[in-house]
């Protein structure tokens, strides 16, 4: 396994947990009703996420080459190859994906149910946390880690005689990882506003899963960095439009 690549993947993702814990966590919880200090909770939250990042980085690096998924720019850095040649094919797809993702995010905000709209107006997560965690860390966790595992499992369970997973298996990996990506956004809303009806859960899940599909396709077709570019750009554009 390429341990240098695994280290680089983890390195670019680690600032996200720190940013989300220190910049966003105080906005998402009721600090008057927690049994430990806010600083202790922030350290624990960041540490937990960093452990998950490390696992996703290692597992993704170990399995990605087996199923044809790539991180071309980080691989070029690990091997000291030409970075521009690795980056160039990912820029345009990443930009297009970012525009599509921004449209999804803006639509998500504009058509939010009342309970979510009130939360979005009062608790706007800082852009740095959105970019570092949402744009980079989530791509390492969900695409490089989770989606790679799902594609590998589908390949080993259903297509053991084939040299590589079929498009159907990859699409299943994209879809399931996108759905789980959507579900992962529900707990933060529950923590902020308390219990929410199933309609809100479905809205959050499907709204985020839609972008998860875009990112998953970019990862499959172009590489991890294309998905990261799209996710970062989507947050920047959406923040400029909606705040």
What does this structure look like?
The chain contains eleven helices and no strands. It is mainly alpha-helical. It has one domain. It is globular.
Succession of helices and strands: HHHHHHHHHHH
Overall strand count: 0
- How much strand? under 5%
Give the tally of structural domains.
1
| Morphology call | globular
Radius of gyration: 18 Å
Let me know the largest β-sheet.
none
The number of helical elements comes to 11
As a percent range, the share of helical residues equals over 70%
Unreliable spans: none
Concise overview:
It is built from eleven helices and no strands. It is an all-alpha fold and about 240 residues long.
Entry keywords:
243 residues; mainly alpha; 82% helix; globular
Topology at a glance:
Blueprint: H1 3-13, H2 15-28, H3 38-67, H4 72-79, H5 83-110, H6 114-122, H7 127-158, H8 167-183, H9 186-193, H10 198-221, H11 224-242
């Amino acid at each position: 396994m390429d341990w240098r690549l695994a280290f680089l993947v983890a390195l670019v993702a680690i600032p996200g947990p720190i940013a989300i814990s220190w910049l966003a966590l105080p906005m998402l919880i009721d600090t008057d009703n927690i049994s430990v200090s806010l600083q202790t909770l922030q350290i624990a939250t960041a540490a937990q996420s960093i452990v998950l990042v490390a696992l996703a980085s290692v597992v993704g690096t170990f399995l990605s080459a087996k199923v044809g998924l790539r991180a071309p720019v980080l691989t070029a850095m690990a091997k000291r190859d030409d970075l521009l040649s690795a980056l160039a094919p990912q820029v345009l797809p990443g930009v297009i994906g970012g525009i599509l993702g921004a449209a999804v995010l803006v639509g998500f905000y504009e058509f939010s149910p009342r309970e979510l709209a009130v939360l979005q107006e009062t608790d706007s997560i800082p852009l740095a946390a959105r970019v570092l965690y949402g744009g980079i860390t989530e791509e390492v966790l969900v695409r490089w880690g989770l989606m790679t595992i799902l594609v590998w499992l589908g390949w080993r369970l259903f297509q053991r005689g084939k040299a590589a997973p079929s498009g159907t298996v990859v699409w299943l990996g994209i879809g399931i990882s996108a759905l789980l990506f959507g579900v992962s956004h529900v707990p933060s809303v529950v923590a902020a506003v308390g219990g929410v009806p199933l309609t809100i859960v479905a809205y959050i899940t499907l709204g985020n899963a839609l972008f998860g599909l875009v990112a998953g396709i970019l990862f499959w077709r172009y590489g991890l960095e294309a998905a990261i570019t799209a996710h970062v750009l989507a947050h920047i554009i959406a923040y400029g439009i909606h705040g």
